[in-house]
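seq:
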Amino acid sequence: MGGATMRGWSARGRRGATVLVPVAVCAAAFGFGLPHLAPFRDVLGTLRTLTSGWVAVILLAALANLLANWLFIAAAIPGLPLRRAAAVNLASTAVANTMPAGAAVSVGVSWRMLSSWGLSSRSFAVYAGVTGVWSMLAKFATPAVAVAVLAATGRLTSGAGAMATLCLGAAICAAVFLAGVAMVHRSLHDARAAQAVGRGAQRWSDRLFRVIRRDGPTTVAAAVVRFRDDAVDLLRTRSRRLTLASIGNDLGWLLVFQTCLLACGVPQSQVPWSRCLAGFALARVLSAIPVTPGGVGLIEWGMTAFLAAGLDPAGSARVAAAVLLARALTYVLPIPLGAVAYAGWRLRRPADAAGVTE
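struct:
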């Protein structure tokens, strides 16, 4: 009885921590970190100066960023109409941005929507695996690209301490990226490597099910080999399109942020585009830390601290305003749009069950 009670308390404690820790991080970031860098009064003052022309430009940049996300999904699923790619992206992003375990739940949302349109579980596994790998490789490549751009533009020497940390992080990310590319290349071009991975996965599956005293699946190794064959078929015709769409994904986010900086009165002389790219690389790294959904709080504080370094209080307020505005467009905006997209799918689901292609 006592053991069961302790396990119950432990489970409740873990569930409580998944809610309390993100709340505490956000409270610290928005209640102390950001106001210490730039008072919210000054930030709001900057946002009030936005002209209708700049608002229109910012919204167009946000739309271009969303379109890049939709094209990435459409590139990974042959025959998927762009409107359905948009619905899947918005609905899954809304879940990922609002729930503590949103990344995992968003995969389930994507599966429910895509399967209702006729996508098989086998094709969905390939889609999820390939896009996951491409996105992760992009996250590790971005810091290395940012450091290379800073070096090429002669801005790598400003802020020696921060730049040294950035260079170290970029070097680690570049090493992981190259190792990942090598592993993917070998897995896709060497059938024996896929078979070895499949045998290893089968052994681990057998051990796991022996521990829980149940009969496990005997087809894990074959499933790994099938996944590899399907991925090869997809990438044979779509690898270039996926790579371009992934780059467009990054450029879309960078376009939003750079536009917000200019709209908030931050000139290139204070935060040049190369430093903006480095800030984006920092955001990609912070978003990979599974503390808050979508890195909320961490990204806002980290990017403002990095980009506002060396600026006067007025400049720091303008940078903070740009960061918050960009995050509102890339993080907050997909939430209501995703709710509408999911509701629309639920209403139209019977009529849309005819398959992926139209």
